[in-house]
Amino acid sequence: MEELWPAPSREVADAIRSLCQRLLTETDALVDAFARPSLLAQNDPALLADASLIEEDRELNRSDLVQWLTANIQHPGRRVEPYVGPRAMAYINDLVSRGIAPDFAVAWRVALQIGWRRCLEECVAHCADSDLLGVLDVTAQSLVQYALDSVAALRQASLAAAMGNTDAEGIATIQLIASGAPIAEDLAEGRLSYRMARWHVGLVLWNDDPQQADALDEAITAVRSSAGGRSALVARASATSRWIWLSGEAVPDVHHVKKALATTDEVRAAVGRPGRGLEGFRSSHQDALAAQALIIRLGSDRRFTPYADVELIDALTKDRAGARRFVINTLGPLAEADAALRQALLTYVQCGFNTTRAAANLYAHRNTVERRVSRANELSAVKVEDNPTHVAAALLLLDLAPGVMAATPS
């Protein structure tokens, strides 16, 4: 690429190299600092609603940051060529196929503000006074030019993806329905080749590694096979996720889907509540997206999550610090006690306070369950007989995301 400013002196180049080596060790923290704000600045509801796309956007941010830092370690202060790799290209293809047009310039502007402030802090703390002005001057030029070049490269990649996309109409129709836009039922059926006037259950299947696309395909095959003759609609949501709808004259039973997915270790599933017609198609899909976002937000390893089971937890954990306070205030010492005690009490409540049923679900002797339930209730700050809803919610939250008890940074 054409160089647009003079090469730095050896002293300034050494200072820039040292700066980038230090920043490279805190890559994840830097990405955490600017990925979410830059995403929110784009104000695209379709992008913000999909946890898989949010993860891919974060990975793109990380790739861009590492590219600039490593380039400046090798050639300090020089113009850095953007790299749109296969994963980034797959992400852009997914955005285009769903009619999402991110404002890359806005995202980069926000990221630059946060990133540049961190550079300033490091420069002031570590650069010699004689080198400081030169380091700031060259680094600013390099960062700004890298942003401009990256925006141009991403726009070019988006254009190429748009010209090669063949599934845009179907994905656009799904996006319209999901957003609540008015669309005739017969038009939606014609575009999707899928009947709307019946019961629907929406699912989101995803994994964490784009290299494991085969596992997603195998999981979809398993879901189709378990559908028992019901209609199934499958849409590619991103490189790591698929949207699925099962439909029928009666409410689809997802028990068979859960069993089918139990054989695939790499794939996780979120399931919406059943709904009927066009509105049911939309609401069940939104439920599934919300369940997926909850699992990713909490860092949970749960593999099969019906939204009906975690809707209360979703509301409670929008504020992580508040969720931790809720658990501590509700469970007290039980929050840090043996997990077997908490599991016994949770199962007991879920089984309608029936010890025999709870023992059967836990594959334990009735007397063992009674002792554990009694001990757990002794430890709990709020007794189960006083407020079973709060106790069950706190126990389920801990079961879903044990890490919520970790102290939140001040």
Automatic annotation (TrEMBL):
Residues 341-396 form the PucR C-terminal helix-turn-helix domain. Keywords: DNA-binding. Residues 190-293 form the CdaR GGDEF-like domain. InterPro entries: CdaR-like_regulators, CdaR_GGDEF, PucR_C-HTH_dom, PucR_C-HTH_sf. GO terms for molecular function: DNA binding. The keyword Transferase does not apply. Pfam families: GGDEF_2 (PF17853), HTH_30 (PF13556). Belongs to the CdaR family. This is DNA-binding PucR family transcriptional regulator. It comes from Sphaerisporangium siamense.
